[in-house]
Predict the 3D structure of the following.
Amino acid sequence: MPPTMICTLLKMCSGKSMGHVQEYLKKIFKLKTIKCDVCMDVMTGVDDYLTDHMVDIQAKISGFCKRLPSPISTKCTDIIIPEFKELFPKFIKTELSPGNVCKLLHICSNHMPSKELHSVNKIK
């Protein structure tokens, strides 16, 4: 049964006010799309920031490794740093991609963002 018929049968709206219901539903959908757009823009900025600061992150990991006791410190530096260099960029582009994160946060569904807000400045 179409929404217009249900609304009329329940005497909740007349033909004139049905337009308001449809406008309200359009606004709700647009709001969800805007939230998705904002999430995508923010996560794209985070993605860019992580990519641009990978050397800094690597230095922090290296500093942590150096604070460990002697035999563990060397293994940490020899194993974790090369793995980080190889895997972290791939991880950012796949697991931490803006689309993945926004879907995991339940902000975006399977629909694509509307691209209306992609003029938001990226985090630098």
User: Anything to note?
Assistant: Residues 115-124 have pLDDT under 50 and may be disordered.
